[in-house]
Amino acid sequence: MAESELSPKFAPFFGMGGIASAMIFGSIGAAYGTAKSGIGIAGVGTFRPDLIMKVKLIALYGVIDDS
């Protein structure tokens, strides 16, 4: 890669670091959200077993809608 006045040699390092941090924090956020929804589904299953299938369908529709 050629040296330029507008782009120093270490610029790709910070660019790739930004990409890596976005992927890492995005994955952590997705894992946290999945864990929280799993806890909610398990809680509904213990207190209201008649609603468990409805909650599973809502969660499935949410996953399909997000993708």
From TrEMBL:
Keywords: Membrane, Transmembrane, Transmembrane helix. Gene3D superfamilies: lithium bound rotor ring of v- atpase. InterPro entries: F/V-ATP_Csub_sf. The chain crosses the membrane at residues 12-32. It comes from the Eukaryota. This is V-type proton ATPase 16 kDa proteolipid subunit 2. It comes from Glutinoglossum americanum. The lineage of its organism: Eukaryota, Fungi, Dikarya, Ascomycota, Pezizomycotina.
